[in-house]
Amino acid sequence: MISALGSKTMRSMKPTLGDMLLWLATAFPLMLAVLLVATMLTLQPIHAEGAVSDSCGGKDLMAELQKNDPAKYVTIIAAGDKVENGKGIFWKIEKPGLKPSWLLGTMHVSDTRVLTMPKGAADAVASADTIVVESDEILDDKKAAAALFANPSLTMLTDGSTISQHLSPEDNARLEAGLKERGIALAAVSRMQPWLISSSFEMTGCEVRRKTAGAKFLDQKLATDAAAEGKKVVGLETLAEQAKAMSDLPVALHLKSLMQTLELGDKINDVNETMTGLYLAGNIGAMIPMLKVIEPDQKITDADTAAFEQRIILDRNKVMAERVAPILNKGNAFIAVGALHIVGDQGLVALLRKQGFTVTAVN
């Protein structure tokens, strides 16, 4: 994700827990976390009689800054303006002799504001021959989750240890209390990898409620609607590859993230609302500078951030660009991936331009 903002720019800024939350929402497939956590909670989709509210009760922290600390607000916007390809979530991809294709940066959430998509995107989806998402396995989330849990190395601590053995008594008590508030017994998840446990705290309560009511997050809705219409749906990765990326990172890093997510508490709703506001404004480049301000003094180190960046963003960007190339060379495709995969000097926009495509922001 740092790649999404330009490595030099990002490494000069102190990393925070907010970075991890943002990566999960707009870069790492929250679809994977949703599937796994839903299984972990043994949630079954239900059909509510009325629509489930999008409201998470969060505040737009950028709006508060603009009012109460305009100088800091201006600093954040200025930092975002320096991010290569940091403006816009909807892009047109062209090459002579081919029908245009389209690239949409997504948030992996079911918020109706996000599901609406920018002007022109719905028409592009309707006319496209092929719909491309991060993983086409999201077409059957129960089957995908079952397959992942069938491979213990992707989701479980395989050295015989439990999560409690990796934590101090104080942190273990905090974790147990936090899980209990979410209706999860520590014993039920004690051998799961900490990143998976952490995902139960990183998802907002409203997203979980929408999921249990049967709502689909943007990427999943695009894929399922396309499949229902008989369109070709292609995934650029498997969910197993995505889980492997997370499990490849050091347990110590995931433990830091887990405990700091617990400290964040209800403020995650504010983070979510602020990120959503920037996303809807198409100002993806300002997301990380914003998080540096609202979540300072965290314990995530530069080395932690670099490891996360390399494995979760840079490596996956390259894979996505390589795998999408033959699809784009046929023309008339619609690609939807996490928004932070498209920005920065090593994001998909830059990588596709290196492949000879003209990529232009729409609107």
The average pLDDT is 82
Shape assignment: globular
Q: Which residue ranges are poorly predicted, with pLDDT under 50 across at least 5 consecutive positions?
A: 1-31, 41-52
Rg (CA only): 20 Å
Q: What is the distance, rounded to the nearest whole angstrom, between the alpha carbons of the first and last residues?
A: 24 Å
Order of helices and strands: HHHHHHEEHHEHHHHHHHEHHHHHEHE
β-strand percent reads: 5-15%
Structural class of the secondary structure composition? alpha/beta
- Structure summary, number of beta strands: 6
What is the spatial order of strands in the main beta sheet?
Answer: 4-3-5-2-1-6
Strand count, sense and barrel status of the largest sheet are: 6 strands, mixed
- The number of distinct helices, counting runs of at least 4 residues, comes to 21
**Relative helix content:** 40-55%
Task: Describe the SSE topology.
Blueprint: H1 2-5, H2 7-11, H3 17-26, H4 30-40, H5 61-68, H6 70-81, E1 90-94, E2 101-106, H7 112-115, H8 121-127, E3 130-133, H9 141-149, H10 152-155, H11 169-181, H12 186-189, H13 194-202, H14 205-212, H15 218-228, E4 232-235, H16 239-248, H17 251-264, H18 267-280, H19 287-294, H20 302-328, E5 333-338, H21 348-354, E6 358-361
Parallel strand pairs: 2-5, 3-4, 3-5
Antiparallel strand pairs: 1-2, 1-6
Helix pairs in contact: 4-9, 4-13, 5-6, 6-19, 13-17
